[in-house]
Design goal:
- The structure is a homodimer of 123-residue chains.
- Chain A contains five helices and three strands; from the N terminus they run βαββαααα.
- With 123 residues, chain A is α/β, with parallel strands linked by helices.
- Chain A has two domains: 41 residues, no CATH class; 55 residues, Arc Repressor Mutant, subunit A.
- In chain A, strand 1, helix 1 and strand 2 form a beta-alpha-beta unit.
- Chain A starts with 8 loop residues before the first strand and ends in a 6-residue tail after the last helix.
- Chains A and B meet through strand 1, helix 1, strand 3 and helix 5 of A and strand 1, helix 1, strand 3 and helix 6 of B.
- Strand 3 of chain A pairs antiparallel with strand 3 of chain B.
- Chain A binds a DNA duplex (30 and 30 nucleotides) through helix 4.
Chain lengths: 123, 123
DNA sequence: TGCGAAACTGGCCGGGTGGTCAGGACCGGA
DNA sequence: TCCGGTCCTGACCACCCGGCCAGTTTCGCA
């Protein structure tokens, strides 16, 4: 806490680049009125710096995979996707499998999260 | 630029609460090695603070639900979440059920998408 | 002191999911 | 012409998911 009665502003760090994170932590470490959050502590604000990852070249999704991905992001089940695209559930599973592979995801939720992070889809 | 040859770290502010934004700007304004971004300037990192009042009205998630939600967004299965939080799979399902209810989602993928859209979690 | 909210646990079960096999049709490039 | 990629379909199976029922403890608030 500062000298006055105002509590410190608690900041948490979410910086991918370790070097940048270290520099920020060092700079912000001992500033009056400011404090870095302990792990798990609720922060008033968060310092964010994400790597803009290479994407469109790297991951080449086919049009059909993009169709399936979009419906997955809507929370649709394989059966729903099949109905909407007019194909069989088997084929949907086939595309979902390809997506999990290409996006390096462990499940459909992870796939949607990865795709959103990489800007492949917009939530 | 600092005295040494290392360029300043440029920070941009994305803080909803004007009072908090002012305090942060004042605190960070004159730190050697740090600089706040000019409007439109590309920043190395961003300080983010979503207005805490906007969302609890809308959707009031408990801390535990937020824990579970965060792990869901990482693609973790119920079993993984249970292990990471040190609770049983049943309890995880309980929280997931609450989340699906509160977020008006049909499944975990939908829940993560909804939460990301509403800014409850950051992908 | 009671009462509700939150967190936690258990069992059960229908349906969904993901992986693995198998195949066929189409099309463009080597 | 053959090859690879895309898209499509089928079957099988272990596992996961979500919903249902039931219960416990802890904590804060009226």
């Amino acid at each position: 806490m500062s000298a006055d009665n105002t509590p410190d502003i608690v900041l948490s760090l979410e910086v991918d680049d370790p070097a940048l994170a270290d520099r920020l932590a060092a700079l912000l470490g001992n500033i009056a009125g400011l404090r870095l959050a302990s792990p798990g502590e609720q922060a008033a604000a968060t310092i964010v710096a994400r790597d803009p990852r290479v994407m469109p070249d790297d991951i080449a999704l086919t049009q059909r995979e993009l169709d399936v991905l979009a419906l997955m992001a809507e929370g649709a089940s394989n059966k729903m996707i099949a109905r909407r695209l007019g194909i069989s559930v088997h084929t949907v599973k086939f595309h979902v499998g390809s997506l999990l592979d290409k996006l390096d995801a462990t499940g459909r939720t992870d796939a949607v999260a990865h795709a959103a992070r990489r800007g492949v889809i917009e939530l």
